[in-house]
Design brief:
The complex is a heterodimer of chains A (about 325) and B (about 800). Chain A is built from twelve helices and no strands. With about 325 residues, chain A is mainly α. Chain A is elongated. Chain B is mainly β. Among the domains of chain B are: about 1-45 and about 575-650 and about 655-795, no CATH class; about 140-295 and about 300-325, no CATH class. Chain B is built from eight helices and 38 strands. Chain B has a 26-stranded antiparallel barrel. A three-stranded mixed β-sheet of chain B has the order 7-14-17, with no helix packed on it. In chain B, strands 6-8 form a two-stranded antiparallel sheet. The model of chain B is unreliable at about 1-35, about 170-175, about 245-255, about 310-320 and about 495-505 (pLDDT under 50). Classes of the chains: A mainly alpha (about 325), B mainly beta (about 800). Chains A and B meet through helix 1, helix 8, helix 9 and helix 11 of A and helix 1, helix 2, helix 4, strand 5 and strand 12 of B. Chain A: InterPro entries: Decahaem_cyt-c_DmsE (IPR020015), Multihaem_cyt_sf (IPR036280), Multiheme_Cytochr_ET (IPR051829), Paired_CXXCH_1 (IPR010177). Chain A: It comes from Dokdonella immobilis. Chain A: This is Decaheme c-type cytochrome, DmsE family. Chain A: GO terms for molecular function: oxidoreductase activity.
């Protein structure tokens, strides 16, 4: 604690020093100027806090020479009562803005979500946050600090390999699905949730980064974009007609196993009208033709043994997605 | 929110990354204490980032491409661990500078390596480059093929001595049934031709980004990425069993199947350019997004080992003998080159502090004009009858959205939104005459499909004091589907006598219009200071406008329809009810318990097709921080999914079939995890993390013959379970040797046990299925891995 106090004092000095520096970028009139108010706060709030704060100087919010950089009070409010202390013997009043969804160790209740969010949107209203208002997370009272850790040197939300754990704090079904045998490479840190979703709100469904599901998937899977000579309607409309992107027991991220998956849309053509059930000899699985021989319409890739171009074909002989 | 748990959990397979990042990001006292002895060093540590270099070795004792599917650890042996993260710049000195830079590398000793460099003068400009490699293994090391050729090639031929596979039939007229089909057994020499191939597809993503902020209002951002793909993925293939001795060039021989290495030799260039404006009350962004896809190939060609007709000078060779000059070849297409160019405009305006309007508009042209050359088997009829040599395809994508939000006092808020998406496929339709699998001559019309979707939602939120919140909403969703030319809209095939009268006014889509209305209600409340409750209910009703004259263009002329009353599930009329509820109990500052669940019921109105769908889940989470340096977390997830299907056997489009069968799908998943962390042990020198995850998934299909079905035409019962059980156990420790050095060590145990009837058909010597075997097995592995690394850190 002693060292923490020392650090806090030095942090306060740092705040004053920063305020004295000439900013490389002049603050514009729409953003507040940092005026060395940090010291007012860091005199008491130090590295011994439950959530240490001074490493913030390593973050973009700590580049004091950038005229846009906020002070503590830019986000937490002037908090005059809190700064003045326990003047009425009723305990120190809360700061103007308390972030989070739980009460603080000091017993302060979090501020209204709108107040919290506005503190961030004052500077971060554009870009990825364009569609925040009215978005699923906004309506669910999710606040910025539920996901972002702005006082730490590194915000896990912005580290690809750590980001899914932040999201899984609420999205527990998706957490379980990523443990399935067929997944996107989230667990290996090669993808993050934000590669597909914009948690701040979007113009697409399910907070997707693009306007539609298909447009989002084709960002990486451009080979399936076409337009193909022979199209497949569910592919054009929504990839999730057949795929479940967070994980599946059926490769490749399929909602169900062909031929049964195909049966959900096709009943007339070809062998989609044929029932397939018990294994031949107890081990085949997927069905048999009359007479007992296994049926290639049902085993292995089933329909996709021959109808291989399920995403579309550009061959003049591919009308039935064979080629 | 349980942000604590993310700091406790070690989950990535990539051990080295996780070890490093946990220490780095988790604000560990160990890390924070490094290089800190004096007070000025305390300041130094707060201002300057922790840089680190890590080098070590990781041992994988067994080959397992499935284990190494994404992490690059697919072969047994030792792997170099090499990771680093170095940052600098005058901005850290807090003396007036605003420049920061970062160079980092992760997993450099594997095929999952990542390198990045970034420099920025904050608030003025930024510049970055990146490289990311991902080798995705798709087989479990057991794929075998008799074809000559390597992954990434597009020509797969059989050795001349391979001989024709025994598919002798006894039927006249070439009609094959199960009774007259040959044994299709492979001879000893044919089996000897099978050899192993390791199948993977590799992505190398190289990126470049730059941005410049001209002033407080204007900024421009640019980024470019090139995705290079190589390797192959497995794909089925129906062969053209042609017989040149037949007058038509082809003779029906059934559709024999080989599993091929489909090349993924792709390049995709992606480009983003955006001009951003921010004002006092509004903001806007004008951008361009481009995506250009290129495939090195236009098709894949392979030998047909099933042909029984032989070639000119050696007709009808005996099974197992050479077919003469060479095996006939079959060809299928690979993805065509295509481009997407999109203009985007988005922005928002604050009418007042409580009223905000946001919106976006985008317009895109998606084109494709790759030549048909090399996409089909070259036989006279096809080549001569091509109406054009390329598609000249064009799809115009339009999007627009608006959202208005208004805060009417502290307690009440409103939101209303409108979304419009259109996929207008303006590609021309033409007639294509071709020979399908088996040599049947057919004519089909390409059907460019378009759709337009309009969505509207409005909602109100009301807060009852500070502890209760109610949301009521209404959502409307309408989709139109159409084809944009007369040829596509009248593309019905010839009618057989039994189906006469079915077509009245043919159209290219089965359901031209869907409309759905949804009502949404959610409620949240806080009881006291420690309990949070939430519950929600959504009811949706989707109606389908069905075109009874629908002709499925993907099917042969006399087969291009579904049975009467059968609708594709995603367009069928449906009612949906969704319930969800959750409770979180913050028992103490150290202990949190959460339970939530949801259930969705879908009821379809279709006479035939999917009848019901259901999914449900329950999740229990607990987090306990028993000290400032120690915590444990645990979770359990339970998930169920089911789908009931009713289908008809035999084709009769005119009336509802009375030969019915059902198929029920069930999926059961259980997942649990426990993780813990202990920091600053042994006098502050040792940090430990542990994690255990277990996942069990089982999928099962049950088919029943419901009505009037002769068991001879199909079978019923349960398919074998598709099951996968995964166990992951990890221990990672970091021991501080001195102020700048640490020793990292870890142990990983990961096991997968899976059974899947998918692979039964691929076994050598198994019951003939008309599939050329690959000998692939369901993935199973058990890997014990250890690593040790030295870490040097400095500021």
């Amino acid at each position: 604690m002693k060292r923490g106090r020392t650090v806090a004092l030095l942090g306060a000095a740092l705040g004053f020093a920063a305020a004295m520096c000439s900013p490389a970028i002049q603050a514009d009139e729409t953003t507040p100027t940092r005026v060395g108010q940090d010291a007012v706060c860091t005199r008491c709030h130090d590295e011994s806090e439950t959530k240490p704060i001074l490493a913030m100087y390593q973050t973009p919010h700590g580049v004091t020479a950038d005229g846009r950089t906020p002070s503590c009070q830019s986000c937490h409010g002037a908090s005059a009562g809190h700064v003045a202390g326990d003047t009425e013997g009723k305990g120190r009043p809360a700061p103007d803005v308390i972030f989070g969804s739980k009460h603080t160790p000091a017993g302060y209740q979090p501020s209204d979500p709108l107040v919290q969010t506005e503190a961030c949107l004052t500077c971060h209203k554009e870009g990825l946050r364009t569609h925040w208002s009215g978005s699923q997370h906004q309506l669910g009272d999710v606040v910025c600090s539920n996901c972002h850790t702005v006082h730490a040197a590194n915000d896990p939300m912005l580290v690809k390999i750590l980001q899914p754990e932040v999201c899984f704090g609420c999205h527990k079904e998706q957490r379980a699905q990523t443990k399935h045998i067929s997944t996107h490479p989230l667990d290996a840190g090669k993808m993050a949730c934000s590669d597909c979703h914009n948690p701040h709100g979007s113009s697409g469904p399910k907070l997707l980064v693009k306007n539609t599901v298909t447009e989002t998937c084709l960002t990486c899977h451009a080979e399936k974009r076409g337009p193909f000579l022979w199209e497949h309607q569910p592919v054009n409309e929504d990839c999730t007609n057949c795929h479940t992107p967070h994980g599946s027991n059926i490769s490749a991220l399929l909602k169900s196993r062909p031929p049964f998956l195909c049966d959900e849309c096709h009943d007339g053509p070809h062998n989609s009208q044929a029932p397939y059930g018990t294994a031949v000899g107890g081990i085949q699985g997927g069905g048999a033709l009359a007479g007992g021989s296994p049926n290639s319409n049902a085993v292995g890739r089933a329909c996709m043994n021959c109808h291989v171009m399920v995403h579309g074909s550009n061959s003049p002989t591919g009308a039935f997605l064979h080629h | 929110m349980h942000t604590e748990s993310k700091q406790l959990t070690v989950k990535a397979v990539s051990l080295a990354i996780r070890a490093a990042l946990l220490l780095f990001v988790g604000a560990s006292p160990l890390v924070q204490a490094q290089a800190l002895d004096a007070e000025n060093e305390d300041v130094h540590a707060l201002i300057y980032p922790l840089n680190w270099l890590e080098i070590g070795v990781l041992n994988v004792p067994t080959d397992s491409p499935k284990f190494g599917e994404y992490n690059g650890l697919y072969r047994s042996g030792a792997y170099l661990l090499a990771n680093f993260d170095i940052r600098g710049g005058d901005a850290y000195r807090q003396d007036g500078g605003t420049t920061r830079w970062q160079v980092s590398g992760i997993d450099l000793g594997t095929t999952s390596r990542n390198l990045q460099a970034h420099i920025a003068q904050q608030g003025v400009w930024n510049f970055g480059v990146s490289f990311d490699q991902l080798r995705h293994y798709t087989t479990d090391g057991s794929y075998q093929t008799p074809f000559l050729g390597s992954p990434g090639d597009n020509l797969f031929v059989l050795p001349p001595s391979f001989g024709v596979i025994n598919t002798t039939t006894t039927a006249s007229g070439g009609v094959i049934t199960s009774e007259n089909r040959g044994t299709q057994s492979l001879t000893a020499s044919q089996q000897a031709a099978f050899h192993d191939e390791n199948i993977y597809s590799e992505r190398r993503n190289t990126g470049f980004s730059a941005g410049y902020r001209m002033n407080a209002q204007w900024a421009v951002q640019f980024d470019f990425k090139r995705l290079d793909q190589s390797g192959a993925k497995l794909i089925g293939s129906g062969t053209d069993a042609y017989d040149l001795s037949d007058a038509g060039g082809f003779n029906y021989r059934g559709e024999r199947i080989a599993i091929l290495m489909n090349p993924t030799e792709y390049k995709t260039d992606t480009l983003n350019l955006a001009l951003n404006w921010t004002g006092r009350k509004g903001f806007a962004s004008l951008g361009y997004f481009g995506s250009m896809f290129h495939d090195d190939y236009s098709g894949v060609t392979w030998s047909n080992p099933f042909v029984t007709g032989g070639t000119g000078d050696q007709p009808n060779p005996a099974p197992g003998t050479s077919p003469g000059d060479a095996f006939p070849l079959s060809t299928m297409s690979t993805p065509p080159d295509n481009q997407l160019h999109q203009l985007n405009l988005s922005g928002g305006y604050l009418f007042s502090p409580s009223t905000k309007l946001t919106g976006a508009f985008s317009y895109a042209r998606n084109t494709q004009d790759a030549s048909y050359d090399g996409t089909y088997t070259l036989v006279p009829d096809t080549a001569e009858n091509l109406p054009v040599n390329s598609l000249d395809g064009l799809v115009v994508l339009t999007h627009a959205d608006l959202k208005l939000t208004h805060q009417a006092g502290k307690a009440l808020s409103f939101a209303a939104g409108l979304r419009y998406n259109e996929r207008d496929n303006r590609t021309a339709s033409r007639e294509y005459t071709f020979l399908d699998l088996g040599g049947e001559e057919l004519t089909a019309v390409n059907i460019p499909m378009s759709n337009r979707r309009l969505q509207f939602d409005m909602g109100a939120d009301y807060r009852f004091g500070s502890h209760q919140h109610l949301h009521l909403g209404y959502e409307y969703d309408r989709i139109h589907r159409w084809c944009g030319n007369d040829l596509a809209n009248n593309a019905q095939g010839e009618l057989s006598d039994t189906n006469a009268g079915y077509y009245t006014n043919a159209s290219c889509v089965q359901v031209p219009k869907n409309e759905e209305n949804r009502l949404v209600a959610t409620w949240r409340a806080r009881l006291g200071e420690t309990v949070d409750l939430n519950a929600g209910f959504t009811h949706g009703r989707r109606k389908a406008e069905v075109n009874d004259s629908f002709y499925n263009p993907m099917q042969a002329n006399d087969q291009g329809f579904e049975n009467f009353g059968y609708l594709a599930f995603f367009a069928a009329s449906r009612s949906q009810n969704l319930f969800k509820a959750g409770v979180t109990w913050q028992a103490t500052d150290q202990f949190t318990l959460g339970l939530n669940g949801r259930r969705t019921n879908d009821d379809y109105d279709s006479t035939l097709g999917v009848q019901k769908g259901h999914s449900s889940s329950a999740n229990l989470d607990a987090n306990f921080s028993y000290s400032e340096t120690g915590a444990v977390a645990a979770y359990v997830s339970w998930q169920r999914r089911s789908r009931d299907l009713l289908s008809a056997s035999g084709r009769n489009a005119v009336a509802l079939r009375d030969t019915l069968w059902s198929n029920n799908f069930g999926d059961r998943d259980h997942t649990l995890g426990i993780s813990g962390t202990q920091k600053a042990l042994m006098g502050g020198k040792l940090d430990l993390t542990e994690e255990l995850n277990y996942s069990s998934s089982t999928s099962r299909y049950v088919t029943d013959l419901v009505q009037n079905i002769n068991p001879a035409v199909g079978n019923s019962g349960s398919s074998p379970d598709i099951q996968a059980k995964t166990t992951q156990l990890r221990f990672i420790g970091a021991y501080r040797l001195n102020a700048s050095s640490s020793l990292l060590a870890g142990y990983l145990y990961q096991r997968l046990k899976s059974t899947d009837y998918f692979y039964n058909a691929y076994q050598l010597g198994f019951t003939p299925t008309t599939l050329l075997p690959t000998n692939q097995q369901a993935p199973n592995y058990s890997v014990n891995s250890v690593f040790v690394a030295y870490r040097y850190s400095f500021r």
